[in-house]
């Protein structure tokens, strides 16, 4: 297989919910090892597009290819082992401890994670191995989110999908966890797609920013290009928010 094969490809991918075209004929390739942010207003189709990758949503038309293979041809448990997924709102099982939550994917696939592997996954998100025995309701929001990331990585996936992973966190925790995930992406050689409504986060973490609006990709730019004014009106409206804040802060500091 040539190494230039995209990790993910959308081919005229379309998903409707009644009258709503949530994803409207999207075609694009995502290169292996890239960190892509999918940004856009609420309801623009970000979550739906992300879920077509791991078949939580089946497109009405078009297809999605994972490392060259149509995801419809893939067996769903196999697919979910190749794709780590951090849910919007994390969704830990409240009656299972942290170790059991982290091991749930492999367990459903018929294997048990060793305590040392759970410790290694916890270490990856900067938590001590002793957290394995804690219950989700004993953890802070940031810690729960870290467990969500560790759980997504439990099956050694090539691809990491995250749906607003840091949405509910305070800004300091959010920043630290964002940086940590970017490091994991780099050291594990992942291909990452992160949904966020926060353009600042997208600009700071991603190699490539896709801006979605009404089911379509309105802009497909590097952070640099966006900061240089590229991507069109919708993208620039989103970029203006952190830029104006930065300018206002710089003025205050003078
Ligand atoms: P985003 O993640 O950008 O907020 P979504 O992908 O969740 O957007 O939703 C895109 C559009 O599809 C919205 O209009 C939403 O109401 C609609 N939608 C999403 N999921 C469903 C569903 N399961 N049933 C009906 N409509 C849905
Ligand atoms: Mg969403």
> What is the domain tally?
2
Largest sheet report: 6 strands, mixed
Radius of gyration (CA) equals 18 Å
β-sheet strand percentage = 15-25%
Helix content: 25-40%
Can you give the mean pLDDT? 93
H and E order: EEEHEEHEHHHHEHEHEEHH
**Main CATH class of the largest domain:** Alpha Beta
Bound molecules: adenosine-5'-diphosphate, magnesium ion
* Strand arrangement, major sheet: 6-7-8-3-9-10
Structural classification: alpha/beta
Give the name of the CATH superfamily of the largest domain.
P-loop containing nucleotide triphosphate hydrolases
Number of helices: 10
The CATH topology of the largest domain is given as Rossmann fold
Overall outline = globular
Number of distinct beta strands: 10
Distance between the termini: 56 Å
Question: In CATH terms, what is the architecture of the largest domain?
Answer: 3-Layer(aba) Sandwich
Q: Which regions are unreliable across 5 or more consecutive residues at pLDDT < 50?
A: none
GO molecular function: ATP binding; ATP hydrolysis activity
Domain ABC transporter: 8-239
Keywords: ATP-binding, Nucleotide-binding, Transport
GO biological process, one term: quaternary ammonium group transport
């Amino acid at each position: 297989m040539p190494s230039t094969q995209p990790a993910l490809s959308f081919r005229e991918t379309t998903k409707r919910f009644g009258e709503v075209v949530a994803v409207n004929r999207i075609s694009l390739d995502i290169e292996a090892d890239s960190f892509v942010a999918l940004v856009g207003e609420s309801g623009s189709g970000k979550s739906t597009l992300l879920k077509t990758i791991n078949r939580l949503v089946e497109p009405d038309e078009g297809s999605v290819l994972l490392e060259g293979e149509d995801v419809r041809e893939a067996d769903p448990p196999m697919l979910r082992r190749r794709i780590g997924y951090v849910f919007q709102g994390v969704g830990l099982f409240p009656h299972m401890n942290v170790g059991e939550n982290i091991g749930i994917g492999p367990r459903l696939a018929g294997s048990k994670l060793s305590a040392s592997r759970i410790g290694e996954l916890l270490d990856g998100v900067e938590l001590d191995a002793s957290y394995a025995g804690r219950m989700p309701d004993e953890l802070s929001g940031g810690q729960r989110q870290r467990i969500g990331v560790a759980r997504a990585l439990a099956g050694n996936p090539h691809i990491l999908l995250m749906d607003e992973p840091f949405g509910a966190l305070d800004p300091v925790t959010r920043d630290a966890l964002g940086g940590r995930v970017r490091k994991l992406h780099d050291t594990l050689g992942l291909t990452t797609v992160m949904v966020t409504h926060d353009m600042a986060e997208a600009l700071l973490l991603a190699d490539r920013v896709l801006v979605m609006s009404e089911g379509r990709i309105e802009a497909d730019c590097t952070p640099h290009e966006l900061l240089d004014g590229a991507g069109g009106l919708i993208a620039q409206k989103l970029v203006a928010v952190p830029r104006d804040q930065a300018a206002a802060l710089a003025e205050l500091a003078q």
